[in-house]
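Researcher: Go.
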Amino acid sequence: MQLTDFLRLIHPAIAVIFVFPLIGTVVNFAWSTRQRRLELDKGKSKIPPVVGNEHRRLGQYLTGAVVGLVLLGLAHPIGKNIIKNDVWNKNPFQVVFIVLMFIATIVSLVLLYRANQALWRGVFATLTGAGLVILGCQDGVFRRTSEWYWSHYYIGISAAMLMIFSLAIVPDIYKDKSNRWRLIHTILNCIALLLFIGQGMTGTRDLLEIPVSWQESYIYQCDFVNKTCPTPNK
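Model: Structure:
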């Protein structure tokens, strides 16, 4: 394996080592928080009150981890395309724009964490999501648009958007006495959990399909529709 192949593995390695265990922990605290709330409606609960704060704290970490993971997953193919096609010399403005978009997306996420007013939370959440979409549209990113419903890219972007929205509405959940925002939060994060499961499956599939760098010249001659490859000359 060459350096570019090892760099490609950083994204799935971080997902397996850090992000997916964090998802499991957040889901566990979410379930415990709900069970405690239901038990309190009937009287007392043996579940400690700290589960709610831990769910919120780790949930905020999870949003940052997911957005960071998406940015990392986009950085490798975009950077590889820039180097391979000599984009810096052909179109330096595009390279500068891409770098600025990465910076702007990260800054928007940081400001989203710090924003208190609903208006600014909405603005920075929108900018963060827009940054991910714009970067995802760059050359080099494998989107599998023809099979968008089974695409690692589209599922990942959708999950990241749901996490960004969940982070933006956290203060509203605690202010809303009607529990409307809490219900929206619960429904959207259940959908996000299903998307994360899909990410585990599509990511594994893509690791099987993407060849290491020294095999690319032959593998990409194959007909992926008919599932045939050219017969090598003996």
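Model: Residues 4 and 112 are 33 Å apart (CA to CA).
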